[in-house]
Design brief:
heterodimer; A: 504 residues; mainly alpha; 1% strand; disordered C terminus; B: alpha/beta; D-Maltodextrin-Binding Protein, domain 2; 10 strands; globular; disordered N terminus
Amino acid sequence: MLESILSAVGYMVGNPMSFLLIIFSVAWGIMFGAVPGLTGIVGVALLIPFTFAFDPIQGMLLLGGVYVGSTFGGSISAILFNTPGSPEAACTSLDGYPMAKRGEAGKALGYALASSAVGGIFGALVLMFAAPPLAQLALEFGPPEYFALAVLGITAIASIGGGSLVKGLIAGLLGLAVAMIGLDPLTGVARFTFGNMMLLTGVSFIAAIIGIFALAEVLQRFAEGPQDSECLTQVSTKLPSLAELLATKATLLRSSVIGTVIGALPGVGATTAAFISYSEAFRWSKTPELFGKGAPEGIAAPESGNNAAVGGSMIPLLALGIPGSATTAVMIGGLTIHGIVPGPMLMQNNADLVYSVFIGMLLANVLMLVFGLRAARLFALVLKAPYQLVGPAIVVLCMTGVFALNNNVSDVAVMLVFGAVGFFLKSYGLPVASFIIGLVLGPIAEVSLRQGLILADFDMVTMISRPIAGTLLVLAVLSLAYGLWGQLRRAKPGGPSDAEPETT
Amino acid sequence: MKHLKRFHLNAAAIVAALAFGSAPAIADDYPSRTVEIIHQYGPGGGTDRFIRAISEPMQEATDQSFVPISITGGGGVPAFVTFLQRPANGYTLVSISPDDVINHALGRIDLSMVKPLVRIQYDQGLLLVSKDSPLKSVDDILAAEAKSPGGLKVGVTGSAGFDDALIGLFNAQAGTELATVPFGAAEMVSNTLGGHLDMMYEEYGPTRGLIESGDLIPLLLFSDDRLTELPDVPTAKELGYDVTIGRWRGFGIKPDTNAADVETLVALFRDAAADPGYKKIEAENALQYRSEFIGPEAFKTFLDGEIATYTQIMKQLGY
């Protein structure tokens, strides 16, 4: 193994072109992540023809760099404009935007970048040293385990809004209900489509979140009237200090582990990893009341989680030849075009390629940190532009981005509708986070429950008494009970204590 | 000055001649911009890769791009509806496969609204088990099913689609009650390898790596003849089950497209399908055995036959 690593390092040093490729691909990825509608999947797919010009190793470095960059890139627009550039960044909006809005955009971007790099490097190291055993662990996850994992995440909806249990549940269940729209994933029967052909696809997740976050925010800002010009001068591009970053170390570690494991599971990826990391960070936090108001942990958790998932999703790709995410599915296409057969033999037959990808992903994360820290200060300046100009630009960008996603006008309609939904959720104090968690995890829970029941011949006990599934479900019940108890206890001494967000 | 004027006149004459000379060629200019090919599968999936592979030689020949547009979900209906909304100018094609035929048979879409253009690939599928599976042969499957009918679960991709039709057809012929469980392509493989599923249905191309490493064992091939790559895997036909349907891939266009453009496209596809670079990709996925290029008329006849076949299968399956 050491030999392979050394030989891969030797290759990189012997081909300075590789460094240029990584820098280019990370920048390309950040751009595709940041612009709404241009996701990392598109970024990777568009670069595949260019890899023809390079050898397979350089081709994979290019694609890996885009993947790393795009996962971070989404957080830039999520933090600055409340417009998640890609689905995996949706969760970063929840705390990143409030922090930026109170004038600490530089700090929010710094947290996102540092957490992304930590998560990304963690994922890449696990990929490098523990891919085969983790791939085996991932195979232990059948539908019952997916179901339990989703349930564990969903139990957070009740408490995550901070305020009221009832409002959290209402928002969360609304999210679950919206997730039911479309063709039944198992039988192909249309549900809640009201005869509308375009609703057969269901509600496009990215169109929905862009509506809920970005459009709803623009609506609200304009509804408040043009009184916030005093905000403009208060934009700080100050980055978080090392001590501030270290304060989130427990969250970073926990989320990196969660992200890597979830990334390694085929079919669920960075978005799920971000949301489960977020709800776990919330559950374990000493100051859960700060979540949703710009808590550093609320940025660190999803960003380290979704970037760790990048390395994680490469595990089944490189160890078994099956993609752990939609982006890696496109990468498999890239490999086969180069005449490489993805499969368990890849690590033996193409050790140079595999280890170069490992090194390349580590480098990509380091480079992202170095260049990103400088860029973050520049990006933060964007907030100095008057919102009367930025707002309409965001709306245009969202509409074109959502259309470009699937070349589908109905997605634009979905976004507009969800802009209104988001506006009303906010107006009635219903937590957006709970709604989105229902929307993300609902389909996973539903499909895996039904798959699991078919496999277990509709015997619920067999299904939930499997070791991993059972443990996760017990954890879910315990944490739900703990959350309820905590809320009841807090509710007794005169209402929920809304701690003031610290003002710096 | 005089010279210059003369030169100008000459130049004008040349330009005019060029313009006139190329006037009839304007119709032949097709394609003069990017041609979009709408399909219902994910980016990086088999069809997406197929379109990218076949369009390589076509881009070289025309200097224009042929790009796959992936509109996923909804059982393929939104992709088809999007195609119908496009103008009949020859710049939008749609991929056609058995999934579309099934959608037609189920009344979800109307295939008479598309003109069949060319059919290029014709694949063959396999029943595969994990290397740790107690099932070692088709006989084991039949024995297990005889013991507890419906006990074996087969992973498939898509719901009420091609895979379901094929397994349903096999059940009808073999007297088994194999139950299908729809998964995403990647989860289907991981659930089979992890032993959560008893077996899965998939084509050779996507599973080649896992077959070569010995992690997945193919037990049965649905085709007329055995594959050279898998000489020991029996066909359903030789075991007495007439299940040879396979996934094929072709393209369609709007019916009222200019006939000359249609001819140009058919010729482009014909050359591309014979291109050595494309042939190599075809062979790597064991697609060369049943794939045969057929043009609009033959494809139309073939499609009508498929519609009849699948309408009957879906009726048999109770859809």
